[in-house]
Structure of GNAT family N-acetyltransferase:
Amino acid sequence: MDMGAPFITARTASDYWAYATLFSSTCPVAHVEGVLAGAVMAFRSQDDPSEVYVQDVMVHPDHQRQGITTALLGSVRAQAQEWGCRRIWLTSEPNNQAADATWRKLGWSNLSGDREVAGVQVISNFKGPGKDRAVYELLLN
Ligand SMILES: CC(C)(COP(=O)(O)OP(=O)(O)OC[C@H]1O[C@@H](n2cnc3c(N)ncnc32)[C@H](O)[C@@H]1OP(=O)(O)O)[C@@H](O)C(=O)NCCC(=O)NCCS
């Protein structure tokens, strides 16, 4: 996960234990020839169980553009649909163009913000002071 810097902040081993042990249905991983190549950490909201929030998406640089994120988010989407959720959503850094291209390719919408950065709608201070984020969602049927 460190390889996702500056866009990904690696969590602790204890965090990953919890994701794998308590939230495995929305925290899928991808292996290529036995080696961990990508992971998604997503969680169903307890405040609004009709929503699944995607916290982290990370694919090893050697395995990007191979459809791993497409497959992992597809798995999260299938689980959310099985639960009858209304939407999946996530945020990314305003300057993460690879992420923006990925979410759009997968049919996610970039929510309106209060400013635009290189064609991306950004909400200022979304995650606290100075933490501007682009917000994306995929509505489910
Ligand atoms: C963003 C990221 C998760 C995409 O993962 P991925 O497994 O490479 O994505 P996929 O292979 O499923 O790509 C699906 C489509 O998204 C688009 N896409 C993905 N990466 C892209 C890039 N770097 N530039 C332009 N388009 C891109 C393409 O349309 C791609 O389809 P194609 O390869 O057939 O053209 C990956 O680049 C990554 O791990 N980056 C570092 C960590 C990060 O920024 N995570 C997101 C933080 S919110």
Residues 2-139 form a domain with the Aminopeptidase fold (CATH 3.40.630.30). The CA atoms of residues 60 and 103 lie 17 Å apart. The pocket of coenzyme A is lined by residues 4, 7-8, 38, 57-59, 64-70, 92, 96, 98-99, 101-102, 105 (CB under 6 Å).
